[in-house]
Structures are given as C-alpha cells and as structure tokens.
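=== RUN LOG ===
request id: a7f3
mode: sequence -> structure
chains: 1
length: 118
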Amino acid sequence: MKTLICHTCGCSLVRLGISKDETTFYSHEGKEYSFCCQACVDLFITDPVKYLQETEDVIVCPTCLAEKPLERSAKLNWEGQEVHFCRCPSCQEGFQKDPDRYMNRLEGTTPFETELRH
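=== RESULT ===
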C-alpha cells in the first residue's frame, strides 16, 4: 500500500498534514500525480521523467511516516499485502499493536499524530 507522496520532493502528504481533498494534483501522460503544493507541480513540469524516477520507489513507513527508498526498507506481510517500514524495530512492533489504525492513517483516513520518536 502506498500513501500519497509529492512526486517532486518525495514527502508523505499524510506526514505534512495534507488531506486528499487539499492535495494538488497534476495529470501527466494520462495519469494523475499528487503534490504538496503548486510550486512542486511547477518544478515537476520542467522534467517529469526525472521526478517520477526519483520518487518511483519511495515508501512511507505506516508507523512514523518516514519516507524511504524501497531498497532501504523492511517489510512485513499483513493481511496478504506487503507493508514496508523504515528499519526501526519499534515501528514494526508499534504497527503490530494496532495495524488497522496505522493503515487507515497511511491511507489518509485518520489524522496524523506523532507517537514514536526516533
């Protein structure tokens, strides 16, 4: 499961507190992409291929909402899907205590709250 990220800066929109309704969207080659602000859209337009390649494998840890490259993440199978985490063991442990809450937050359906400090 992937959460909305800005396809220019790679930030998690959930971590930034930007709801799906507040997200800036831009269509490129028939596909809609999410952005944190119009300035990021304007930059994306200058070289979409570059920015799409840079953010292609960005994952967001459901527990701490850190953005990481896929190759620097840990994964856990949860209800038949792969969930990717930052490598902190506390994040996986915290997730397992209340996975529905973290998955809902990752999807942007519950507000961002910080509970883990690294």
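=== NOTES ===
The helical segments are 38-46, 48-55, 89-97, 99-106.
The chain has one domain: 24-106.
=== END ===
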